[in-house]
Amino acid sequence: MAARDYGQYSGISRAVELVGERWALLIIRDLLVGPRRYGELASGLARIPTNILAARLKELQAAGVIRRAPRSRVIVYELTPYGRELEPVVLALGAWGFKALGDPRDEQVITPDSMTIDLRTAFRPVVAAQLPPTAYGARLGGAELVIRVNGSALDVTRGGGDVDVAFAAGTGFRRLISGELAPERAIETGVVDVLHGRRELLDRFAETFHLAAA
Amino acid sequence: MAARDYGQYSGISRAVELVGERWALLIIRDLLVGPRRYGELASGLARIPTNILAARLKELQAAGVIRRAPRSRVIVYELTPYGRELEPVVLALGAWGFKALGDPRDEQVITPDSMTIDLRTAFRPVVAAQLPPTAYGARLGGAELVIRVNGSALDVTRGGGDVDVAFAAGTGFRRLISGELAPERAIETGVVDVLHGRRELLDRFAETFHLAAA
DNA sequence: CTGCATCCAGAATGATACTG
DNA sequence: CAGTATCATTCTGGATGCAG
């Protein structure tokens, strides 16, 4: 039950003892977006068995990475301050893994939380600071997000709202961000579908969010 | 055998599919220090079962993270360029885990490679750049290292050589680096044992290598 | 209904023995 | 030295049960 240890005295081995079990980093990823209820975690991590989710939540609590917090009648899980220190690690790991992503397969889901973190990994604050504030509406798989960029600040929320440009992208999302496909080409080929708004803002999106493939 | 996938289309899930299996990140950690033979990896990761090591090496090759390279009669494993891009991830994770380290337990080993990476995570190049070049000899558990700091450059090698100060530290190593114990106190209490050289250089060591506990 | 606990088949790991 | 083969143990995944 407790994470088996590696018998080594080192930072890495301690870290993987704490958060290296299967599913653990994905739980942490979703909690980086915000506190979540048990059921919210379960539906965000569609294929996690419920007993494994319960076990991981206990282990991560014991490790001091997350905690149960009562919020007006319901219980949510949230990162502790120490857990939140994993943010740079998760973002760096996500950036690395993003480069190895191919096109999404049919059985793969995109959740709002995972997409939010992926957007954070690809976000270029220095570039964004030079551009006017913009709100994008993005529909990707099952996730529908409003992405607000204001200076070097990024804010991603779920659901609708007023946006400057709204688009739907399946396989195109990664290609846009990797620079593999220019925005105009993406629209032409139908890989990205602009639903409404100023379609030229897709260029700005591609500038703001960029992660070159390896 | 192949890494089971999480059914999600995201950077993190892809990353943990590639390097999230048990022992994988420790193998990568040691390969970050330099190319290693099968037997070197096996002895650095004392408790890894040999079949698991063999399996991981194959999976990591298939993932494009490492490769087998023939070096004058023998075969070594080394990181691919893509694998080397994990360096910031491993260092960040190591820094996080280091903060959760307690005192070393008896059954825990310290290997030269793991210690080398831990020193890299704690190294402060900006601080080091202000200090004169210094060579430290450190004996920690089974690992005996020569640590050369020259400006903002750090070089850690195994074995002996001329150093400005040599010291042995058991539990003291972490406490020194975390700032939990001042160098003078460490020497007084016998937690750190200066073998020869200028003992006041331990202050410089503690300035150069620092990682505050959480 | 949410938040888990229990049960069981199958997969991964760990220990050890063995081979080219 | 560099792995492969075998087998006991542990963990995961999927289904289901159940208490607040």
UniProtKB/TrEMBL annotation, chains A, B:
Database matches in Gene3D superfamilies: Winged helix-like DNA-binding domain superfamily/Winged helix DNA-binding domain
GO MF annotation list: DNA binding
UniProt keyword annotations, A-Z: DNA-binding, Transcription, Transcription regulation
PROSITE patterns in UniProt: HTH_HXLR
SUPFAM superfamilies: Winged helix' DNA-binding domain
Boundaries of every HTH hxlR-type domain copy: 10-105
InterPro entries hit by this protein: HTH_HxlR (IPR002577), WH-like_DNA-bd_sf (IPR036388), WH_DNA-bd_sf (IPR036390)
Name this polypeptide is given: HxlR family transcriptional regulator
Organism: Subtercola lobariae
Lineage of the organism: Bacteria, Bacillati, Actinomycetota, Actinomycetes, Micrococcales
